[in-house]
Specification:
The protein is mainly α and 116 residues long. It contains four helices and no strands.
């Protein structure tokens, strides 16, 4: 539970910009399944965290374990992209020393796809 509170606080306190970090992507998935940068904003990350919490506590109304798995995979991918995006923004601002954060985020974004 402490980890959940810590993650929630991080999500709420972060400030993501609307600028594109990866303008020249080579998208490797079908465009109708591709997760754009908007999928990794604060609101989406909070939604994903709530989804995972509901799945873990079995407080979600999905018909089968298969649908729960799909919801879990999408939520985890949103959170992964969110944290990569945060690090990429911090790199751009010069507030971290990780020189590869933007490249990792852009590589992730090229193949990020909704599971359905």
């Amino acid at each position: 539970m402490k980890k959940l509170i810590l993650i929630s606080a991080l999500l709420i306190s972060s400030n993501l910009y609307s600028e594109e970090l990866c303008p020249d992507l080579d998208v490797k998935v079908e465009l109708d399944h591709w997760m754009t940068e908007e999928a990794f904003d604060d609101e989406s990350a909070l939604w994903a965290l709530k989804q995972l919490t509901a799945i873990v506590t079995d407080d979600i109304d999905l018909e089968s374990d298969f649908l729960k798995d799909i919801a879990r995979l999408n939520a985890l991918q949103i959170l992964e992209g969110y944290f990569l995006r945060v690090e990429a923004h911090r790199e751009r601002e010069g507030s971290i020393l990780d020189a590869g954060a933007t490249a990792r985020y852009c590589k992730f974004l090229e193949s990020a796809a909704w599971v359905d």
